[in-house]
Specification:
This protein is an alpha+beta fold and about 325 residues long. The protein is about 30% helix and about 30% strand. Strands 3-4-7-11-10-9-8 form a 7-stranded mixed sheet, sandwiched between helices. Strands 15-14-13-12-16 form a 5-stranded antiparallel sheet. It has a two-stranded antiparallel sheet with strand order 1-2. It is elongated.
Length: about 325
């Protein structure tokens, strides 16, 4: 009922909506309306109330809650069920806890803050409150576990396309880092539970530094990490950006699971790659080698060329990569 009242206020944001009209349309008492209005105010909505005029929505909070994200969603199921937290240790950890329950496909676990956010190889991900997008998408696809790694590329492509909606051009460090001006803007952490040829669930953790300031990063991180606000000097609408990411993700994800089509994803990943055509260093089986990244295969693997001219396909997770062009991150 609270969400329906909020929807009515949003539809009439330039005028007052009488309590009597809300009561008649929704079939609830004026007292019930007053109760829900107060609840909305507690959640950060600024609502003006004038006797005989009714209620008018003045402003909405910058929170990544369901009723705000719905405004920007065009999806059928991705993000249509948001499990929201003000603060949590890790969205991926919570997503894994609830994924095996009767939770619907496409559920998104999101938190305004992570106290123990995780990157790859167990690294800490700094996730300050109300500054970024810290979320995990729960997926339950009917597909071979061996194909699950491509969901990481789909997420990277979706984030890249969403940022282009905001006129921000980023690059992708295959397969899971989002780079802006040679610094890390975001990352993707994919985890899976499966048995033989059956996937129980896939968790796609996405972290994007949106409105972080320099003070949010330690001296060490400041040299390699950045945010949209730092690079553009603008504050970004986190709700709109989140909605855009989920919209693009569902389109690319459905192309893959329904049509076995990774073409659109690969086009985005190749066009915006920070690695292709460049010399990179890889730790492969404990040995540091230097090679050239030449392409991404139709299966989503990185194709490298060794100095002797031989070609090799690299599987995500097998090696660590160290870029030699202004950033140093591990894949």
């Amino acid at each position: 009922m609270k969400d329906k009242i909020l929807a009515m206020l949003k539809e009439n944001e330039d005028t007052f909506v009488s309590g009597q009209l809300i009561s008649e349309i929704l079939g609830v008492s004026r007292a019930s309306i007053w109760k829900h209005i107060n609840k909305l105010k507690e959640e950060g909505y600024v609502i003006e109330s004038i006797s005989k005029n009714g209620y008018k929505l003045v402003s909405c909070p910058d929170l990544l809650v369901q009723q705000e994200i719905n405004t920007y969603l065009n999806t059928n199921y991705i993000g249509r069920n948001i499990v929201y937290f003000d603060s949590i240790d890790s969205t991926n950890t919570k997503a894994k806890e609830i994924a095996s329950m009767d939770i619907i496909d496409g559920t998104v676990v999101i938190s305004e803050e992570q106290t123990a956010g995780r990157g790859r190889v167990g690294r800490q991900w700094i996730s300050p409150k109300y500054k970024g997008i810290w979320m995990s998408i729960i997926l339950k696809p009917d597909m071979e576990p061996s194909n699950a790694s491509n969901i990481t590329l789909i997420a990277a492509a979706a984030v890249t396309m969403a940022l282009k909606d905001f006129d921000v051009d980023v690059q992708i460090k295959w397969p899971n880092d989002i780079i802006l001006n040679n610094k890390k803007l975001g990352g993707i952490l994919t985890e899976m539970s499966s048995e033989l040829n059956l996937i129980e669930y896939i968790i796609i953790g996405i972290g994007i530094n949106v409105n972080n300031s320099e003070e949010d990063f330690s001296d060490t991180l400041e040299a390699i990490a950045t945010s949209l606000k730092i690079e553009t000097a603008d504050n970004f609408n986190r709700q709109k950006l989140l909605g855009s990411i989920l919209n693009h993700f569902e389109i690319l994800y459905e192309e893959y699971i329904l049509e076995s089509n990774l073409t659109s994803t690969l086009q985005v990943c190749k066009k915006n790659s920070i690695l292709l055509g460049k010399e990179i260093q890889l730790y492969h089986k404990g040995v540091l080698i230097t090679a050239t990244a030449v392409d991404i295969s139709d299966e989503g693997l990185l194709i490298i060329q060794h100095k002797d001219g031989s070609i090799e396909k690299i599987i995500s997770g097998e090696v660590s990569m160290h870029g030699v062009y202004g950033y140093r991150q591990e894949s």
